[in-house]
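Tutorial sheet, problem 5. The two components below are modelled jointly, 503 residues in total.
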Amino acid sequence: MEENRKMICSKCNVALEPARAYFSYLNHSFHTDVLRCPECGQPFIPEELVKDRMAKVEMSLEDK
Amino acid sequence: MRFNGNVVRSTSSVCPVCLERIDARMVERNGNIYMEKECPRHGAFSTVVWKSGVDYSRWIEGAAPLGEGENLKCPNNCGICPEHRSKTCCVLFEVTERCDLSCGFCFANKSGANDPPIDELRAQMERFIVKGETLLQLSGGEPSMRDDLPDLVKEAKKLGCKYVQLNSNGIRLAEDTEYVRKLAEAGLSFVFMQFDGLNDETYEKLRGRPLFAIKERAIKNCADHNLGVTLVPTVVPRINTDEIGGIISFAIKNSPAVRGVHFQPVTYSGRIPRRPADRDRFTLDELLTQIERQTQGMISIKNILPSRCDHPMCGFHGDFVVQEDGTLYPLSEKNENAQTCCCGHDSLAARNREFVARRWQREPLSNECCLKDNNAAEHDINDMEYFLERVKSHGFTVTAMAFQDAGNLDIERLRMCSLHVFKDGRLVPFCANYLGPLC
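Model answer (structure tokens):
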């Protein structure tokens, strides 16, 4: 199953771990859970998060 | 004409008596802004338009002043012409001349004549509905006087209307639950309900009878059928200006059934009790100041933005989320770097339409079930997933529209109007359509 597959950091070659990520936009801050490399700290931001949820947050905060 | 004060802007208006177009100046005097004008036949007129609650020049920055030779046909012969600067955001469509109230103030001031048949209205709607776009406002008179209103909603949806809004005093919505059910099933999107205050004295003065309990029942009946209700107070000096905060609190308490408050400072068109003096006017900046004051700062002026789809003097909007503790989380905030002028942008009316529809229409009930307030401890508005759900279910707007009359009509504003009345085969800016002499 896709969701059971481990994500590996291409730089450190270790499995990514769940972590909380913070996003700021127009003086507002939101958090969500993403996967992050425990060694180098690089987070994995899936396309769905960017194109769907983050875009919706941005749209909610922007003037019409 | 000599002006008593500092001229800050030049525009054109009309004589309040004969409605002929005449030059006008915005003049600053004692901190207030007045529209001053002189008709060769009827003399000089002065009307207060801003009362120094908010910085006037900053509020209107970005709005293009009326240039010499521009919009010379306004407001005579008015229909949307190539010189008009805004596209249609909403179409107001009068479906009846009848009403079950006889209000002291009514811009429509209808005759009570028999209703046009539904086929006739359908043929008219065919002429202005743009498939997948139009936001139709059913107006009157009181549209719910028509037994066949649900059929009319169905027809509008069949013709491709994206949103159908009902402008109503709420009486029938309170008394006839079956009627509300039929409207919801026909595809009605949301209700704009006249709501002037929280006590019957206000309604007796403005509407001629006590109505508060009826308003509450109408909201409940709409909620039972998942129809969002936006409260629409007409704000009149010495009658209900001290109820602004109370109305907002009531609306928040009734969220998500109530989607927001849309204030309309009194305008002197149609049926009015008398020709207004300056003390009878309630300017947009007074409203802004009172919203902040009467909500004890929960709503700050910095979270309320001037209209972009219309002229900044025509209205404002504030966008919020009702939190589980009953406070408002502000989404909108004045951004000094934001573009404020929308002249020529076809998409602005469309963006405004989508904004209001997104907020005023309720989510399907199945999507609200997981957001009941009894799990308050588990929720954090900064949690992205929760925030996105809460915006959809408990979005809340504080908006206003300041209509114009013959005393304060400003062609600079009129040419930017995006609320259009369909009349005699043409789309006419709202304030031009209802313009009448102030005698």
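Marking note: Chain A has a mean pLDDT of 90. Full credit if you identified this.
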